[in-house]
Protein 1
Amino acid sequence: MNTTTAAKDTLREQDAGTSQYLTFFLAGEEYGVNILKVKEIRGWEQPTLLPNTADYVLGVINLRGMVVPVMDLRKRFGMAEIELGKMAVIIVVKVTHSGRGRTIGMVVDAVSEVYNINDEMIMPSPDLGSTISDEYVKGLATIQEKMIILLDIDYLINEGMLKDAGNNQE
Amino acid sequence: MAVNLDMSQFHEIFFEESREGLEAMESGLLNLNVGVPDPEVVNIVFRAAHSIKGAAGTFGFTNISRFTHVLESILDEVRSRKRGVTQELVDVLLQSVDGLRYMLDCAKAGAQVDENRIAAIQESLENLPVEQQPKPAGWQIHFIPRPHLLQTGNDPYRLFRELKALGNLFITPDFSRLPGIDKKEFDPENCYLGWDLLLQSDAGIEQIREIFAWVEGDCDLDINLSGERRQLVERRRRRDDESADALLESGRGQEQASIRVNIDKIDTLINLMGELVISQSILNHAVTDHDHDHDQAGRLKEIVELLEKNTWELQEQAMRIRMQSIDFTFQRLPRLVRDLCRSLGKQADLEIFGGTTEVDKTVLEKINDPLVHLIRNAVDHGIETPGERKAGGKAESGLVEISAAQEGGNIIIKIKDDGAGLDTGKILAKAREKGLITGAEELSMSQIHNLIFLPGFSTVSKVSDVSGRGVGMDVVKRNINDLGGSIELVSEQGKGSAFTIKLPLTLAIMDGQLIRVGKEILIVPVLAIVESTQVKKQLLSAVAGKTEVYRFRDEYIPLMRLDNVYGLSSDLKDITDGLLIIVETGQQRMGLLADEILSQQQVVIKSLEANFQQVSGLAGATVLGDGTVAMIIDVPGLIRHCKGITAAHTAGNTALLP
């Protein structure tokens, strides 16, 4: 299986205040998540349908015996749907919230790079309207003239997604 | 840098050990006889308090250590016999155990301790009146002279006088050997009497034996430590299993080699095991498919078969790590019975059998509430007051028995009381009043008894703060059903009731029936399946044009199209091509319409909650032999859901999905 483990060791050499971010594409925009949250990146596979949940919950996959839900970030952010192509991947992240850890997969168009980003480089985001609540956005960073939207993944998954996914039931 | 050693990693161990210590204290205190405490039991309680105090001090929980210090000093006085054991003392000590538990819970949760509550307990501890003179230990003397005793010149009265010099003496004569006065065999020079003597005294057994030295050959003599202690010893002898001893010896003999392991590590191991089983079955498929004539093929098959056997064994052993003895739940019950008896003015003993029976941790956690409920019911409504019992010719003290045993893949828990039993007249009257039955039905005894499990049987639940017979019994039943188990009841008026609970040993594995709906594979628990049948059009009808019902045998059962329920696309062209799986929980039946029925296999249940959340209509998921995930249907949930739909339809609501 095409599994890549993030190289976490390199982080030790970084200066204080600098973190590594894994970036990925969604409809041409580049998003970043803290690499320490990323467990692995998997190639696209059709998840098993999970009934009675929100539409952006695509289903569940088997991650070495663990049943892991997969979310479609495009659908979540209200972007146009596309046929998931060869480049599509599932980024498996470990999110924690009130002491409870969850492993969840996010489908994105393609992975991009790993960047070192210092906290000082992160700028607060302007009001983004309702599609992406600014609560999920940690800030914006500029790398080589490109804008990268840094996501607060713990918050996005736990507060945003699971709560909404739950609202769709009963 | 090392100064800032992170202590929090040790806290978890401290909490765990203290919890065990508190349990040892509690069971010790419950076994402590007023008046004649067993020094060993006092020691167990003292040692437990002492270690909690020490550890609390080390980890900086000063409030716990200070409180335990007060407790410990009192226990020390009891230990050194400076203080007698009174009912009041035991009560206050038990309260202190509760107080300590509360403080530990607070410390664990990082919450603020309600100082007033603790201060109140501490005050009652400090103000305990010291009963300087410990009540003398007693001796129970069973003295039956031979008929010729008087002829040898010995006078029992003289013996009693000498005994009386040693302490308080209570004499109960035994007339059972006395022949009728009109009968010829009565010889006025013979002694037909026997005596049961209770001597409250510090005297040693030698002193007593000395008094009886002259008559020893001329009587049956039995000298024992008195009263409750003796009963306890007898009871211990009577029980052939270990649980009674475990109660007395908890804290003493528990030095079996064991290690503390984080449950996550075990679950990871079990997950990996599940994965290994899957890889193994893939390998198995591959080998079977490649059935070439190679010489190697036969040998390869053998190896794979061996591997399969080992893998299954390994998995079974891994599952056993999660098993815990049911004593974890049972050991809280004596306290419950004791407290209930005191608040209700009743007398009852709780006997526990088979406490070492092992069951999965999850089952253990979920069975606690139903058991507590049943025990409460047994004491509150089963056991009569001492007066009523006496009038009914029973011992004043009632008996509640709880036992556990393993039978195949199930665990059987029995709860039995020798109380009043169910009043069938009252149950019938109540069921009619609530409209659960019509007046005309002829019901068998067991059908009447089972009425108490019906929802709505008891609506007076909140009237008594303890329980009502039947209060929440539907909930007890549902909880047990949800665990994949069943509950049965036998009761005889005036003699008592017995509940038998059957539970699966583990929730992690079950027998599953694979079915196909469209492209998806779903799993129905085999336990819930009554039978599967081809759909016959003439048996199918609709109610209100929407809800479909199917005539199965002599009843109409609701039919659920799984493709609708789960939003799948079925490839059935005609309903008669499909298969109907009749499932049931409790009294309710339902038909599930599937495209195809596949094989049956054991599946490892994976919770969806672990990484996501509960999903209505699903009991979980599992990983199939080919590595894909399949959903497990929550049959009780679907049936409840189905009733909801019927209700919604009648209310004009057409929503099909929850």
Protein 2
Amino acid sequence: MSTKTILYVEDNELNRKIVRDLLRRTSYRLIEAVDGEAGIARALEQRPDLILMDLQLPKVSGIDAVRTLRSSPATADTPIIAITSFALSGDQQKAKDAGASAYLAKPYSPFDLLGLIRKLVPETN
Amino acid sequence: MDQARERVDASRKIEQAVGVQMNVIRNALVLLDEATLVGILHDEERFTDTLARLEEAASPVERETIEKIRAAERQLIKTVEEIRSLVRADKADEAMALHLNESQPRYREIATLITRVVRSEEAGMVQLRQNVEASNRRAVLLMSGFAAATIFLALLLGFVISWSFIIPVHEAGRFLGQVARGNFGGTIDVPNRDEFGALAARMNAMSRELNQLYEHERTLNTELERASKAKSDFLASMSHELRTPLNAILGFNELILGEIYGEVTDELRVPLTDIQNSGKHLLRLINNVLDLSKIEAGRMELALGDYSVQDTVVSVLAGLRPLAAQKGLDLVSAVPDDIPLACGDAGRITQCLMNLVGNALKFTQQGRIEVAVDLRGDVLHYRVTDTGTGIAEDRLETVFAEFRQADATIAGQFGGTGLGLSITKKFVEMHGGRLWVESELGKGSTFSFEIPLRVDRAETA
């Protein structure tokens, strides 16, 4: 099996770097987008195996992006992990309603995220 | 009326007297009795008196008749004198002839005249009676009219007076009702120039005053709300800004500890763990500030869902176990396996337990901390017991107040803002539950809260 591709949509550079470093020693391939609009474009173009979607994004919000991706046949079944903000209760429900497969509240432990990714899309060797 | 009747009586009397006199003369002549004739002459004086009485207040026509009667009377007296002389001279036949020819017709004339006076007097009396009756009727009519007018006036006056009371009182009542409902802007319109008018003017003044105070208070409230919202917004944005770099610190530190960047020596692992624990503590504090600002701004809502009580306690203990281990404290739990799936905001309940266990860790130097849960009916009972410093009885009440700790010196000794307990209390109350503490100085404390096993949306405040 080929290498699994993960799309991470997040506007904060340091958060992207953490995930980049986290996945460095794994076989996952990481692609990135900095806002909702770019995230949707990359998802439709690259067809990743899993999408990590931060919900607080510029241009198009994470919730709207999840909704858009779910309505497109190319990404309708792609697992999506919504990264919700701890501060905003109700985000989890909104993410679920929009069609997210799982959610992880910020601040999250990078290794917890890795565990969740591995559960949804097993790594191939 | 009495006078009229008296006059009628007098004229009748004369009428009678004349008739009697005529008969007396005839008898006297038959008997040739001079003395009787002398009596008649004496009687004449009385007769004249009576006539004079009648003449008083007589009508001109009557007066004329009376004058004729008087003339006839004088003539008669003369005749009677002559008859008397003849009687005295024993000339009876001549006397009788004189009587028949002179005095008798004279008497008849007088009688006729008197009858006329009597008629006139009687007619006058009838007229008078009619007049009196007419004026009686007029009087009755006038009296009735006056009585009716008086009653009408009295009723009208009563009506006007009572309405002049009722209308202003009614107005005042309506107006005070408005004021009671919080409508201070209105005025009362009572045009009376009496005490009611004065009262209405006072009420209007009061209303204006109240309205001014109300407007002033509203302005102050608006300003206060704006200031409070500005504060909440500032706290929310500040804590978000603080959290972003802290997330990065914690994330990278965990990657280092996970040896993503290479091997970590045991010597290095100790300070890195300290960074991790302190960072998490700082994160909790920032989250508390953020939560409190949201609660105060009324923007805090529970995200209700099913959750496992066992998993919740396990995750809380897992998060704080490193800190407990560092202080050499036992951290244990007692949760029965048979507690069914609960419904509530799992994130907030986790936060409550984190705050309570975090506090217990902070104030306990040795011994153990136990988290116990049991289900009593439909109520979940959470309990966090420590063997720490405890809280003096007189300070138990203040521990749940914002920005307060049981002892101001504690802040210096142990750190913390005292926000954790007040936020925990609020979250528990939002679940429709309550939080309380039992403590003994030097022996330890037990913080408990109970919430419904399954929280309905309707129960959350």
